[in-house]
């Protein structure tokens, strides 16, 4: 009888120790969802900009621009500082040497977009057709962790060609940059849809 009581006591004690060991474990950690900086941007407002290059466009008041290089209107490079978005829009202008060279110039612009196909999750594009102001081109949006999320080119199909490229000063993280990119896209579309040549 004594042996049975000892066996029972040992079993109860073992069961208690096992239950106690499992009960004292810390709860499994639950991963927290990533959080991103919430940036409050001002309402969009624009002014026409006519600088050293042979075109004008609507620029968001949040940004400022400067001409980096100007070669008597044959070529011109401008940088638009994107302010709190921490990046720049570069505009590369060239005078088209001959109408026959336009397809090669457009292919060069498309090749610049294609360089990012490996990293891009998706590339969307919009055709720009403004017959009144003779502005034609394509606006590209590259989605994913790419070095440039927006590129475009515009031409009058005879004399003038400009290519635009956005470069941000940070490591590409599409999810965290999405609010800034959505805001910037509105301003870029305003620029390309209100672009005018003053040399043609």
How does this model look, in words?
With 200 residues, this protein is α+β, with helices and mostly antiparallel strands. It has one domain (47-197): Protein Transport Mog1p, Chain A (3-Layer(aba) Sandwich), CATH 3.40.1000. Helices cover 28% and strands 34% of the residues. The protein has three helices and ten strands; from the N terminus they run H-E-E-E-E-E-H-E-E-E-E-H-E. The chain has a seven-stranded antiparallel β-sheet with strand order 3-4-5-9-8-7-6, sandwiched between helices. Strand 3 (64-70) and strand 4 form a beta hairpin. The N and C termini lie far apart (112 Å). The model has no long low-confidence stretch (mean pLDDT 87).
User: On the 0-100 scale, what is the average pLDDT?
Assistant: 87
Largest sheet: 7 strands, antiparallel
- Briefly, what CATH class? Alpha Beta
The portion of residues forming beta strands comes to 25-35%
Cα end-to-end separation: 112 Å
Instruction: Give the overall form.
Output: elongated
How many individual β-strands? Answer: 10
CATH architecture: 3-Layer(aba) Sandwich
User: What is the strand arrangement across the widest sheet?
Assistant: 3-4-5-9-8-7-6
Mind telling me the C-alpha Rg?
29 Å
Number of domains: 1
Query: How does the helix and strand content classify structurally?
Result: alpha+beta
What share of residues is helical? Answer: 25-40%
Instruction: Give start-end ranges of low-pLDDT stretches.
Output: none
H and E order: HEEEEEHEEEEHE
């Amino acid at each position: 009888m004594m042996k049975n009581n000892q066996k029972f006591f040992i079993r109860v004690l073992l069961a208690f120790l096992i239950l106690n060991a499992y009960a004292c474990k810390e709860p499994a950690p639950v991963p927290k969802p990533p959080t991103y900086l919430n940036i409050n941007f001002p309402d969009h407002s624009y002014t026409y900009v006519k600088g050293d290059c042979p075109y004008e466009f609507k620029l968001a008041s949040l940004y400022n621009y400067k001409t980096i290089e100007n070669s008597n209107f044959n070529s011109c490079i401008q940088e638009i500082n994107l302010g709190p978005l921490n990046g720049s829009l570069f505009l590369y202008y060239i005078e088209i040497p001959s109408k026959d060279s336009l397809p090669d110039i457009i292919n060069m612009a498309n090749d610049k977009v294609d360089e990012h196909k490996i990293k891009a999750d998706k590339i969307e594009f919009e055709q720009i057709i403004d017959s009144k102001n003779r502005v034609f081109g394509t606006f590209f949006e590259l989605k994913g962790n790419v070095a440039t999320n927006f590129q475009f080119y515009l031409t009058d199909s005879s004399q003038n060609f400009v290519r635009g490229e956005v470069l941000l000063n940070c490591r590409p993280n599409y999810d965290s940059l999405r609010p800034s990119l959505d805001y910037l896209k509105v301003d870029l579309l305003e620029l390309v849809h209100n672009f005018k040549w003053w040399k043609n």
